[in-house]
Automatic annotation (TrEMBL):
Organism this protein belongs to: Periconia digitata
Keyword Isomerase included in the entry's annotation: yes
Stated name of the protein: Triosephosphate isomerase
Any one GO cellular component localisation term in the record: cytosol
Gene3D superfamilies given in the database record: Aldolase class I
Subunit (UniProt): Homodimer.
């Protein structure tokens, strides 16, 4: 059987909790300046700021095709859940994407495959695209063992999410090996390609679009080395300089 056509490429950046309020808004304004360039026709672009700047970011991005995301949601839409953020409200605030299961939330805030899956279901129910972060915690020094171990650890992470969303719902999976997040450089390209090619098979029967991104110290120069396995990049620190983001967009968009 010939390989399925690959989905449209997509690049996004999370500000995590790196910026203060004004810095976030000026970064989002900077992204707006990039809109309308030649990449527009070829790739999708998104930004995931903190919750507090979500509505102001939505207003800035309103004239553009740049998609807005939130860094988390709760799995219920309304009720006595003090401190949680409703997927319904996130959608109403202008978000199209919601990031779930990031390694930092798994390590520090008790996120599990089960909670990420429940939140993914809530996202789809509210018309949000779940962007679920998956990845193995440790890196084996022998390359072949590292690939097998990563696939084994990531498979249940992917399957639990896919089981929780309708078959035709759009899903983004961000492969982020935990050991490559916040590092000096991204994971070895062969490792990323070998793991993501296998993970793509887990979603092969779905009717909804499933895109696979790489994240973890990615920046300019990363995409070309792993394009065989992924549909784009999910960026952190190295895209917080808007000039770097522009370079990545041009690389992924093929300009
Ligand atoms: O959300 C983005 C990823 O965790 C990557 O972050 P990083 O590029 O700063 O390592």
């Amino acid at each position: 059987m010939p390989p399925l056509p690959r989905p449209r490429r997509i690049v996004g950046v999370s500000t995590k909790m790196y910026f203060d309020l004004q810095s976030t808004l000026s970064y989002v304004r900077g992204m707006l300046q990039l809109d309308g360039d030649a990449w527009n026709a070829r790739i999708d672009l998104f930004v995931i700021p903190d919750f507090v700047t979500l509505m102001a970011s939505a207003e800035i991005l309103q004239p553009s095709s740049i998609m807005l995301g939130a860094q988390d949601i709760f799995w219920e839409d309304k009720g006595a859940y003090t401190g949680e953020v409703s997927p319904l409200v996130v959608r109403q605030a202008g978000a199209k994407i919601v990031e779930l299961g990031h390694a930092e939330r798994r390590a520090m805030f008790g996120e599990t495959d089960e909670t990420a899956a429940k939140k993914a279901g809530a996202a789809a129910r509210n018309g949000l695209i779940p962007l679920v972060c998956i990845g193995e915690k440790t890196h084996h020094s022998v390359a072949s063992a590292a690939v097998g171990a990563a696939i084994q650890e990531c498979t249940p992470q992917v399957n639990s999410v896919l089981a929780a969303v309708p078959d035709d719902a759009e899903v983004i999976l961000a492969y982020e090996p935990v050991w490559a997040i916040g590092a000096a450089q991204p994971a070895d390209p062969d490792h990323v390609v070998n793991v993501t090619k296998e993970l793509r098979k887990l979603a092969a029967g779905r009717s909804g679009v499933t895109r696979i991104l790489y994240g973890g110290s990615a920046g300019p120069g990363t995409f070309a080395k792993i394009a065989e396995g992924v549909d784009g990049l999910f960026l952190g620190r190295f895209a917080h300089d808007i000039h770097n983001l522009k370079k990545v967009i041009e690389e992924v968009g093929g300009a």
